[in-house]
Design brief:
six-stranded mixed β-sheet, 2 domains, D-Maltodextrin-Binding Protein, domain 2, 12 helices, single chain, 42% helix, 279 residues, alpha/beta
């Protein structure tokens, strides 16, 4: 690992993030920059970015709508795709969402944003993402929006699917759902952004070549320890858009920002919301 000032880099404990950053965190690649890794729930990273922004961090794309003057999205490392959105679940069907508490994994998450699009009058209750499934099962809330590993295991625990919010987005937009991404502070020098981008790409490439070397790191941070659940999580959220957003991914992020403008959450957004590497 190179010397110099440590760059703080934040990512979540979910398997797709630990898969992407595992080789970098474990020092398995010869990185261009030195990092101090900060592993926190994505809503905690969203809140941190609003108050004390890290130089490099995972964020919800919905939170990014409020951070456009501070951050730019990198074209690598995104959690974006088809069939991977959050799910709204409950113990029973036929609920009136405007009359019962519905748990969301933080008000700045894309999951909460999607629920507001689907059910604007829903009564939102904020919880950490891994507390929502137990809270629904225990009857502490009537329904909840699940992300990460929870979306893969709710049915076997007896919960009902009220709405696949990712499918709702896809039906409305014909675009993949932009859940989260890796962001760099606008005030970082271009050469630093270029090095960070290259380091993330190399770490992701390592994971694809030699997953067993990072598997213990992924398991150590996972909410669900079942290997099948971890494998499904990675296969779902690490896809072609993770390698590079491409035109389809860029359009999806733009659409979400346009929705935020239409609903009065933000006034406008700059054209350079994605950091584009130049020769």
């Amino acid at each position: 690992m190179s010397g110099g000032t440590l760059l703080e880099l934040g990512f979540s404990p979910c398997p797709n993030d630990t898969y992407i950053f595992g080789a970098l965190a474990l020092g398995l690649i010869r990185s261009r920059r030195s990092y101090r890794m900060i592993v926190e729930d994505v809503e905690a990273l969203n809140q941190r970015a609003l108050n004390a922004p890290l130089p490099v961090t995972k964020l919800s794309v919905a939170a990014f709508a409020h951070l456009l003057s501070r951050y730019q999205l990198l074209p690598v490392g995104a959690a974006l795709g088809f069939g991977c959105g959050p799910v709204l679940v409950a113990r029973e069907e036929g609920l009136h969402l405007e009359q019962v508490p519905v748990a969301v994994p933080g008000r700045f998450t894309t999951a909460a944003f999607l629920l507001r699009l689907y059910a604007p009058q829903a009564k939102l209750v904020e919880m950490r993402y891994d507390e929502i499934l137990p809270a629904v099962l225990a009857g502490k809330v009537a329904a909840g929006v699940l992300i990460h590993e929870g979306r893969f295991v709710y049915a076997e625990k007896g919960l009902k699917l009220l709405k696949d919010l990712g499918a709702f987005w896809e039906e409305e937009t014909r675009a993949p759902i932009p859940l989260g991404g890796i962001f760099v502070r606008r005030d970082l020098a271009p050469e630093v952004k270029r090095d960070v981008l290259a380091d993330i790409r190399e770490s992701l490439s390592w994971a694809r070549r030699d997953y067993p070397s990072i598997a213990p790191f992924v398991r150590r941070h996972a909410q669900e320890l079942d290997e099948e659940v971890i494998r499904r999580h990675i296969e779902t959220f690490v896809n072609r858009f993770t390698d590079d957003l491409g035109e389809e991914g860029r359009r999806a992020v733009r659409l979400l920002l346009e929705f935020a403008v239409d609903r009065g959450l933000i006034r406008t957004f700059p054209e350079d919301f994605i950091w584009e590497e130049t020769p």
